[in-house]
Amino acid sequence: MLPPIPDKILRIDESTVAQHFSLGESDQCYYIWEYTAGKRYDFSPTNQLIANLKIKPSSIAKTPNRDFYKQQAINHAAAALRRFLPQSYTEQRATFIPIPGSKIPGETEYDPRMLQLLQRAFQGWAADIRPILNLTHSIPADHEANDRTSYDDLLAISRLDDVSGKPLRPTVVVVDDVLNSGKHFKVAQALILEQAPTAEIRGLFVARCIRDTCG
What we know:
The protein is of the alpha/beta class. The chain has helices at 45-53, 57-62, 66-84, 87-92, 113-121, 151-156, 183-195; strands spanning 10-11, 28-37, 94-98, 128-129, 133-135, 158-160, 171-179, 200-211. The strands form two sheets. A six-stranded mixed beta sheet has the order 1-2-8-7-3-4. It has a two-stranded antiparallel ribbon with strand order 5-6. 33% of the residues are buried.
Protein backbone atom coordinates (compact mmCIF):
# COMPACT_ATOMS: atom_id res chain seq x y z
CA MET A 1 0.00 0.00 0.00
CA LEU A 2 1.33 3.43 -0.95
CA PRO A 3 0.83 6.41 1.37
CA PRO A 4 -1.62 8.93 -0.07
CA ILE A 5 -0.03 12.14 -1.29
CA PRO A 6 -1.00 14.83 1.24
CA ASP A 7 -2.66 18.12 0.38
CA LYS A 8 0.48 20.11 1.10
CA ILE A 9 4.15 19.76 1.79
CA LEU A 10 5.21 20.41 5.39
CA ARG A 11 8.10 22.41 6.85
CA ILE A 12 10.31 21.67 9.83
CA ASP A 13 9.46 24.38 12.34
CA GLU A 14 10.13 25.34 15.95
CA SER A 15 8.03 22.41 17.16
CA THR A 16 9.99 19.78 15.22
CA VAL A 17 13.50 21.15 14.60
CA ALA A 18 14.87 19.76 17.88
CA GLN A 19 14.01 16.26 16.69
CA HIS A 20 16.64 16.66 13.95
CA PHE A 21 19.61 17.73 16.03
CA SER A 22 21.95 18.79 13.24
CA LEU A 23 19.48 21.39 11.98
CA GLY A 24 19.26 25.00 13.11
CA GLU A 25 16.13 27.11 13.39
CA SER A 26 17.09 29.07 10.28
CA ASP A 27 17.30 25.96 8.07
CA GLN A 28 14.52 25.63 5.51
CA CYS A 29 13.66 21.95 5.32
CA TYR A 30 10.48 20.40 3.95
CA TYR A 31 9.04 16.89 3.92
CA ILE A 32 6.10 14.98 2.50
CA TRP A 33 5.51 12.01 4.82
CA GLU A 34 6.60 10.76 8.27
CA TYR A 35 8.61 7.57 8.69
CA THR A 36 8.61 5.86 12.10
CA ALA A 37 12.06 4.72 13.22
CA GLY A 38 12.55 1.30 14.78
CA LYS A 39 9.45 -0.17 13.13
CA ARG A 40 9.10 -2.78 10.40
CA TYR A 41 8.24 -2.00 6.81
CA ASP A 42 4.63 -3.08 7.46
CA PHE A 43 4.11 -0.63 10.34
CA SER A 44 2.75 2.06 8.01
CA PRO A 45 2.43 2.84 4.30
CA THR A 46 5.28 5.36 4.63
CA ASN A 47 7.56 2.79 6.27
CA GLN A 48 6.74 0.48 3.35
CA LEU A 49 7.52 3.25 0.85
CA ILE A 50 10.90 4.04 2.41
CA ALA A 51 11.81 0.36 2.73
CA ASN A 52 11.07 -0.10 -0.96
CA LEU A 53 13.04 2.99 -1.93
CA LYS A 54 16.04 1.51 -0.13
CA ILE A 55 15.88 -1.96 -1.69
CA LYS A 56 19.49 -2.81 -2.51
CA PRO A 57 20.73 -3.57 -6.02
CA SER A 58 22.11 -6.88 -4.73
CA SER A 59 18.67 -7.83 -3.43
CA ILE A 60 17.16 -7.08 -6.85
CA ALA A 61 19.88 -9.17 -8.50
CA LYS A 62 18.87 -12.13 -6.34
CA THR A 63 15.11 -11.50 -6.55
CA PRO A 64 14.39 -9.48 -9.71
CA ASN A 65 10.69 -8.96 -8.96
CA ARG A 66 11.67 -6.72 -6.03
CA ASP A 67 12.63 -4.09 -8.59
CA PHE A 68 8.93 -3.59 -9.30
CA TYR A 69 8.43 -2.32 -5.74
CA LYS A 70 11.50 -0.11 -5.83
CA GLN A 71 10.43 1.50 -9.09
CA GLN A 72 6.89 1.92 -7.79
CA ALA A 73 8.24 3.75 -4.72
CA ILE A 74 10.45 6.03 -6.82
CA ASN A 75 7.55 6.84 -9.13
CA HIS A 76 5.17 7.59 -6.24
CA ALA A 77 7.61 9.94 -4.53
CA ALA A 78 8.35 11.58 -7.89
CA ALA A 79 4.64 12.15 -8.47
CA ALA A 80 4.41 13.87 -5.08
CA LEU A 81 7.31 16.22 -5.89
CA ARG A 82 5.79 17.10 -9.25
CA ARG A 83 2.47 17.91 -7.56
CA PHE A 84 4.03 20.21 -4.98
CA LEU A 85 6.61 22.09 -7.05
CA PRO A 86 5.26 24.47 -9.73
CA GLN A 87 6.77 24.11 -13.17
CA SER A 88 7.71 27.80 -13.28
CA TYR A 89 9.65 27.50 -9.99
CA THR A 90 11.33 24.29 -11.11
CA GLU A 91 12.41 25.67 -14.47
CA GLN A 92 13.39 29.20 -13.48
CA ARG A 93 14.49 29.46 -9.86
CA ALA A 94 15.77 26.14 -8.55
CA THR A 95 18.79 23.90 -8.90
CA PHE A 96 18.20 20.41 -7.49
CA ILE A 97 21.06 18.44 -5.95
CA PRO A 98 20.39 14.82 -4.91
CA ILE A 99 22.10 13.49 -1.80
CA PRO A 100 24.22 10.51 -2.89
CA GLY A 101 23.85 7.07 -1.38
CA SER A 102 26.50 5.55 0.83
CA LYS A 103 28.21 3.65 -1.99
CA ILE A 104 30.22 5.21 -4.81
CA PRO A 105 29.73 4.41 -8.53
CA GLY A 106 31.23 1.10 -9.56
CA GLU A 107 30.33 -0.74 -6.37
CA THR A 108 27.68 -3.45 -6.29
CA GLU A 109 25.38 -1.51 -3.99
CA TYR A 110 25.67 1.85 -5.76
CA ASP A 111 22.12 3.21 -5.85
CA PRO A 112 21.31 6.53 -7.59
CA ARG A 113 17.66 6.44 -6.43
CA MET A 114 17.44 10.15 -5.56
CA LEU A 115 18.75 11.18 -8.96
CA GLN A 116 16.24 8.85 -10.60
CA LEU A 117 13.46 10.26 -8.45
CA LEU A 118 14.26 13.83 -9.54
CA GLN A 119 14.55 12.89 -13.19
CA ARG A 120 11.13 11.24 -13.12
CA ALA A 121 9.53 14.03 -11.09
CA PHE A 122 10.52 16.67 -13.63
CA GLN A 123 10.42 14.67 -16.85
CA GLY A 124 9.65 17.00 -19.74
CA TRP A 125 10.49 20.11 -17.71
CA ALA A 126 13.63 22.23 -18.05
CA ALA A 127 14.77 21.35 -14.53
CA ASP A 128 18.35 21.96 -13.42
CA ILE A 129 19.24 18.64 -11.77
CA ARG A 130 22.89 18.33 -10.83
CA PRO A 131 24.27 15.13 -9.24
CA ILE A 132 27.41 17.00 -8.21
CA LEU A 133 27.62 15.99 -4.55
CA ASN A 134 29.89 12.95 -4.28
CA LEU A 135 31.76 10.81 -1.78
CA THR A 136 35.44 10.03 -2.19
CA HIS A 137 34.84 6.49 -0.92
CA SER A 138 31.98 4.32 0.28
CA ILE A 139 30.74 4.26 3.86
CA PRO A 140 28.26 2.10 5.80
CA ALA A 141 24.66 3.19 5.30
CA ASP A 142 23.45 5.06 8.37
CA HIS A 143 20.27 3.00 8.71
CA GLU A 144 22.37 -0.18 8.89
CA ALA A 145 25.24 1.04 11.08
CA ASN A 146 25.56 0.88 14.85
CA ASP A 147 28.19 3.63 14.76
CA ARG A 148 27.01 6.26 12.29
CA THR A 149 29.42 8.45 10.36
CA SER A 150 29.82 11.80 12.11
CA TYR A 151 29.21 15.17 10.47
CA ASP A 152 32.93 15.96 10.45
CA ASP A 153 33.87 12.61 8.92
CA LEU A 154 31.14 12.92 6.30
CA LEU A 155 32.22 16.44 5.41
CA ALA A 156 35.82 15.26 5.03
CA ILE A 157 34.90 12.70 2.35
CA SER A 158 32.26 14.78 0.51
CA ARG A 159 32.97 16.85 -2.59
CA LEU A 160 30.97 19.22 -4.76
CA ASP A 161 32.19 18.46 -8.28
CA ASP A 162 30.44 20.81 -10.70
CA VAL A 163 32.21 20.95 -14.05
CA SER A 164 29.28 22.49 -15.93
CA GLY A 165 30.64 26.02 -15.62
CA LYS A 166 27.07 27.24 -15.13
CA PRO A 167 26.04 29.25 -12.05
CA LEU A 168 23.60 27.69 -9.66
CA ARG A 169 20.09 29.07 -9.76
CA PRO A 170 19.01 31.37 -6.88
CA THR A 171 17.50 28.54 -4.81
CA VAL A 172 19.40 25.27 -4.35
CA VAL A 173 17.20 22.38 -3.25
CA VAL A 174 19.02 19.45 -1.64
CA VAL A 175 16.89 16.32 -1.98
CA ASP A 176 17.06 13.11 0.08
CA ASP A 177 14.79 10.26 1.07
CA VAL A 178 14.74 10.50 4.89
CA LEU A 179 15.49 13.40 7.21
CA ASN A 180 16.96 11.97 10.40
CA SER A 181 19.55 14.14 12.16
CA GLY A 182 19.92 16.46 9.18
CA LYS A 183 23.66 15.71 8.94
CA HIS A 184 23.70 15.05 5.20
CA PHE A 185 21.79 18.25 4.51
CA LYS A 186 24.21 20.29 6.63
CA VAL A 187 27.23 18.83 4.81
CA ALA A 188 25.67 19.68 1.46
CA GLN A 189 24.78 23.15 2.70
CA ALA A 190 28.34 23.85 3.83
CA LEU A 191 29.84 22.76 0.51
CA ILE A 192 27.30 24.69 -1.56
CA LEU A 193 27.86 27.89 0.40
CA GLU A 194 31.59 27.65 -0.29
CA GLN A 195 30.79 27.78 -4.00
CA ALA A 196 27.73 30.04 -3.92
CA PRO A 197 27.70 32.15 -0.73
CA THR A 198 24.46 33.93 -1.64
CA ALA A 199 22.45 30.84 -2.53
CA GLU A 200 19.21 30.16 -0.71
CA ILE A 201 19.51 26.51 0.30
CA ARG A 202 16.54 24.34 1.11
CA GLY A 203 16.19 20.69 2.05
CA LEU A 204 13.46 18.54 0.55
CA PHE A 205 12.82 15.07 1.92
CA VAL A 206 10.49 12.26 0.99
CA ALA A 207 9.90 11.68 4.71
CA ARG A 208 11.12 12.87 8.06
CA CYS A 209 12.02 10.34 10.73
CA ILE A 210 9.93 10.30 13.89
CA ARG A 211 10.20 8.18 17.02
CA ASP A 212 7.26 6.18 18.31
CA THR A 213 7.03 6.95 22.03
CA CYS A 214 4.17 4.51 22.58
CA GLY A 215 6.39 1.42 22.44
